Amino acid sequence: MRRGAIILPVLAALVLLALSSLFIVDEREKALVLQFGQVRQVKEEPGLGFKLPFVQEVVRYDARILGLRTQPLEVTPLDDRRLVVDAFIRWRISDVVRFREAVGVDGVRAAQGRMERILNAAIREVLGSVPSNRVLSEDRTVLMNRIRDLAAREAANLGAEVIDVRLTRTDLPDQNLAATFARMRAERQREAADEIARGGEAAQRVRASADRTVVELVSEARKTAEIIRGEADAERNAIYAEAFGRDPEFFAFTRSLTSYERALRGANSTMVMRPDSEFFSYLRSDGGTAFLRAETPRGPVLPDAAAEPAGSSPGSQPAPAGGPVPLPEGGPALGQ
Fold first, then answer.
1. How many helices (H) and strands (E) in the chain?
2. Which pTM was predicted?
3. How far is CA 276 from its chain centroid?
4. What's the average model confidence in pLDDT over 310-326?
5. Which structural domains are found in the chain, ordered by start?
6. What are the b/e assignments for 242-273, b being 16+ CB within 10 Å?
7. How far is CA 211 from CA 89, 187, 201, 208, 218, in A?
8. Quick check: helix, strand or coil at residue 262?
């Protein structure tokens, strides 16, 4: 019984000693075995590790990719236009021994502050060497790669590897936004005015060309119309000449009737003239009287031109001077 009482505590102590000498490294971790602050063992692969109990200790570090978002930083590019920049960096521990020597016992928390200072210095150096329009253009990716490379060289002294750097925001300070927007608006208005001027110039050229084409077409059409009209007048005159040659008396009669029709056209069918006016000279002539008698057999017989004045009908009195002159019956209807 006494021996059993001694063996059990010894076995318990041995088990406790064995457990305290073992440690497990997760696949997401890197571990250092320290003895009195000095690195004695590096454990980067996942699995079971051994250490001296009560003398050595295990310090664990995150082996995953870590992220850090910086505070808004005001930088001055090459053209002296201030910008407010926010950045995001991704990094991980590459050399755990150097990392331990660089940051000490504070570990990742101290490394985050160091990485932010490294990143801010890289941003100031890169963005301060280019104008602001490059920062706000497609060259932004090239600038971010330059910042990443510069920060990676500085982070190597910490035993850290920089994976990527991104500029999440690049804005103007609030006090400069109004002036910048006004300048941008003025530039866009100037570009719009230039485009409008170029469009007006092109429209004027098109309009001038169209006007010239219209003038040419109208001139050609008028020329053709005048030619056709002249040919028609010549043909008409030829027909008139032929008709006049066949029957001069009828031609003179129709010309007189045409004159009467044109003179009495409209609502007014009454004319005031002297009885011996030359306007009705053809009706008073022998040729006109004979033609009217031949053409109007059913009408009343016209009196002889020498016996009665023209424009009077049988049984009627001559029209006084200045009075209305009626036409004989059977003659053409004047004013129609």
1. 9, 9
2. 0.49
3. 83
4. 39
5. 2-62 (no CATH), 66-172 (3.30.479.30), 248-336 (no CATH)
6. eeeeeeeeeebbeebeeebeeebeeeeeeeeb
7. 67, 36, 15, 5, 10
8. helix
